[in-house]
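--- STAGE predict ---
source: upstream dedup step, 1 unique chain passed
mode: sequence only
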Amino acid sequence: MANTEKASLLFDIDNTLIDRDAAFTLYLQDFMERNQGAFADEDAARAREDILALDCHGRKDRKLFCQALLHRFPGLSYTADTLWADHMTLPDFVQADKLLGNMLERLSAQYQLMIISNGSASMQGRKLHSAGLTHFFEHIFISAEVGYDKPDLRLYSHALVYCRQAGVVMIGDDYLNDMQPAMALQLKTVFVNPGKIQVPARPDREITGIHELEEALTCLI
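--- STAGE serialize ---
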């Protein structure tokens, strides 16, 4: 039977396939409720804003994030290690997206679907499981397992070995980690850019959310 796939699609996870910021906000609400004493003398809204800024959409090194959080809120009864262990419950707050699942089902009939993501295998794997998305992807490449972090081109080169199609599209929300390496390797690019931030070199397509991907691909492939 002839292979009718149009291209191989490489997906980022956080804030691309999964609304990681929404999950972190839910986790943070739970965390602050469980540690009310540490925030008793704080304005709750300001404390949330400070923690979200420290988190930096999950892009800040997690050890540095835990250290910075303990420095900002010294009343927290954690060490950096126990705080990280608590943070590992974040995947429990990931919400499934039925519309996304339906879209990936349709795309899987036309494209080879793969994942390329930074992070720990446990954390990222549990996020995908909570979102009900794991089974859509033929290969899942996580930096901690491969040994290289995005934007290192070696992580991309590792994933490209498994791409069946000459046409490869990188889909992600991080210009530095997702778009720039893909463009350097002359891959096609779809930038998930809800804030419409200005970037030095425009990707092939820009979308405000992952649900716009199908339409973007029809114009790209």
